[in-house]
Protein: Adenosine/AMP deaminase domain containing protein
Organism: Trema orientale
Amino acid sequence: METYQSMPKVELHAHLNGSARDSTLLELARVLGEKGVIVFSDVEHVIMKSDRSLHEVFKLFDLIHILTTDHKIITRITKEVVEDFASENVVYLELRTTPKKNDSIGMTKCSYMEAVIEGLKAVTAVDVAFMTHDMDAGTGVDSVLLTDTCNGTARKKIYVRLLLSIDRRETTEAAMETVKLALELRHVGVVGIDLSGNPIVGEWTTFLPALKFAREQGLCITLHCGEVPNPTEIGSMLDFLPQRIGHACCFEEEEWKKLKSFNIPVEICLTSNIRTNTISSLDVHHFADLYKAKHPLTLCTDDVGVFSTSLSSEYKIAASAFGLGKRELFQLARNAVEFVFADDLVKSDLREIFNSAAKRLDVLP
Ligand code: 6MZ
């Protein structure tokens, strides 16, 4: 595991609420249990269960949202999630979350996002580079592993960029509100829009106006695509030419051809696909074919908390399931730099980080 942990890594598909620690969720559930809002033992059982169908996963998200939809708690889980990724040497994290509105506690989509940003500021264990203007100032080079010039000790840094998710349950207007919010928050690291949520809910065309507007305004777009079989939707999503897609589990021959000819990078979430049974086993996972075809792809976690995984574990699983060596894994991690939604200054700094790590870890090509 050490090999996978010490390697710098880039995480491009992580949902905030799905990445919350079990221990935090249990603590929150206990508090609500004491207040009589929920029955703790029922919730404990659901949180600790490890094998869940896709349907059950979305029921769990509804429960998680009951526990976490509060400004202070959102700040706390954001802080913890960033710290957890940084602790396993994730050097660039693109964290996605669905801005939520809850009138009963005075929460707007905007105040929800302010709570997320407070969480980024609250991290103390590592330095978090998330303000886009940080990069415009000074030299522009903001190394992730900087040496503290005063005492010579290395202090870890992690780049964080945010994607705002549109939930498939939302209306066109609600999706548009999310895109407008994303545009207002570009200076604090919002770089794009994600379409996610239960794949059997909603119609792709509902979100199209908001996604088109987002693209016209220069936001990057990633879509959950083909998590369930739906050829018409998959075809239209690919024709939209998103910068990346997530999952691509239920593609047919025609869709593979299209994906490959458009060269759209795929965010691969191995454990998530197996746990939710969208792919029956790693032997038949599309990672192998895409990797062999040199199609752009990146390993991601999806929901570290919900699927009890980590990005290092996903690399370990890929190594053993697909017979990849240390150099190939390192290259896989390094390739992800080319698919990040952050600007070129961040990208070139990340390339530097991987170059120096290649020497340190003895994985030069
Ligand atoms: C589709 C998913 C997902 O946004 O509240 N989400 N959507 N497929 C998946 N695969 C298992 N995993 C997570 O994080 C939780 C939300 O992310 C989406 C769902 O909309 C879920 O409610 P946030 O931070």
About this structure: The longest helix spans residues 71-87.
